[in-house]
Amino acid sequence: MTLMSSSATRLLDYNTLSDKLTVLSTEVVPAAYSRYFMYLLGDDLTTAAAFLRMESCDTLAGYAAGFLCSPTNSSCRVPRAPSATDYDMSMSTAPDAAGGDGRSRLYVSGVTANPLYVGVTIPTANPNYTAATVARFGVSTYELHVATGRALYVKQPTLDGVGALRVSVNAAENTVANLQWTPPLALTDATAVGYNYTTFATGVTYHIYVARDSFAAAVAAVTNTSVGAAGVMPNTACGLERWARLMGANVTHYTTQATNFKLTGLTVAQPYEVNIVAECNDVCLRATAAANGFAVQDAALSTQRVPYASTSFKTSPPREIGPVIVDDAPNKVTGVLAPMGVVITVLLIAFVGYIVYRNNQAEKARAAATARAVAGSPPAAGAVSVPMFAG
């Protein structure tokens, strides 16, 4: 079902919501409310529980937030119209709220056979959300997921998906990154607030989205706008799908049913941002139910999409050149140069020997001449005459 107007009211009756997950998506407008009336009944027809998950598809207008009123022991002045100033419970997709950046979750239990009223709006509007922004990037939207009673639903395997997606790089493959992740949990209890379960979804299709530098920077480069102008939300399923549409032919997107993937052809020493979305359709949900012993309705089941937490990484730098290794076996070049080195060495030794010999002969001639001069005899034939000076 789809709520078509941000100011309209849509009634979601018990038969629509009972024991299944329902996904609603619509525009969100600052100062205007999308309103939902949900009539909940439990297994014993006296109490009920619901699990609500909300995701912002962008941050163009701001972060979506939901406000809830329950007539059961309600403190709301007008329960049918919950607002930012009148509510019993609230949920926000702001970064510092439960659920992580762009996401929110809320567990509602002990509702006594009465409607649950929900209003969704933008409490703090982005001043840059103008008609020009809408014309360039479209309207701001969100999704609301509602699971009631014993509905089969999938959710992140860790709190806010943190640590569920792991990226590794190594120096030997500096254009490669290896991804591994934990499959999403499959649960049938709307009050299950923890993550310590071993019932995982099976037959899941994983969508892998990869951006150079970051998702926001990649869109800015393609759309020729400043970083952040497009209001990219990389931590939600609808946000990543919107990012892919904005990227157009420049998108990097893969699918697999494995829980690992090798990214290849990356740039050396380059930052990247990556995230995955686990998608479980009717076939996947029924296979998951059969594998875990869960009961499901015969009616068609809504496709569920679970985002993980976006993760940044950087590929390895270029490999350094190691020490030069001398090869004992000569090649064509060393075979020619080696004999030349021997010849040069021999010539150098001969030249040094000749210089030493000449110096010795000159020294002997000078000594002989000096002796004859002292004795008063003439120099021998061929000898060097050395003049002597007295006084």
Helix tally equals 6
- Along the chain, the helix and strand elements come as EHEEEEEEEHEEEEEEHHEEEHEEH
The proportion of residues in beta strands is 25-35%
- CATH architecture grouping of the largest domain: Sandwich
Q: Determine and state the CATH class of the largest domain.
A: Mainly Beta
Q: Stretches where pLDDT falls below 50 for ≥5 residues?
A: 1-6, 379-391
Q: What is the alpha-carbon Rg in Å? A: 41 Å
- Report the end-to-end length measured between terminal Cα atoms: 130 Å
Average pLDDT: 82
User: SS-based structural class?
Assistant: alpha+beta
User: What's the main sheet like?
Assistant: 5 strands, mixed
Number of DSSP strands? 19
Q: What share of residues is helical?
A: 10-25%
Task: Determine the CATH superfamily of the largest domain.
Answer: Immunoglobulins
Number of domains: 2
Spatial order of strands in the largest sheet: 1-3-8-5-6
Shape: elongated
Under CATH, the topology of the largest domain can be stated as Immunoglobulin-like
Can you give a write-up of this model?
This protein has helices at 14-17, 131-137, 215-223, 237-247, 282-292, 332-375; strands at 9-12, 21-27, 34-39, 48-56, 65-69, 89-92, 103-111, 115-121, 141-148, 153-155, 165-170, 173-181, 185-187, 205-212, 252-256, 260-263, 271-280, 304-307, 311-314. It has 391 residues and is α+β, with helices and mostly antiparallel strands. The protein is built from six helices and 19 strands. The protein folds into two domains: 1-151, Jelly Rolls, CATH 2.60.120; 153-317, Immunoglobulins (Immunoglobulin-like, Sandwich), CATH 2.60.40.10. It has a five-stranded mixed sheet. Strands 14, 15, 17, 18 and 19 form a five-stranded antiparallel sheet that branches. Strands 2-9-4-7 form a four-stranded antiparallel sheet, with helices on one face. Helix content is 22%, strand content 29%. The longest helix has 44 residues, at 332-375. A hairpin with a 2-residue loop joins strand 11 (165-170) and strand 12 (173-181).
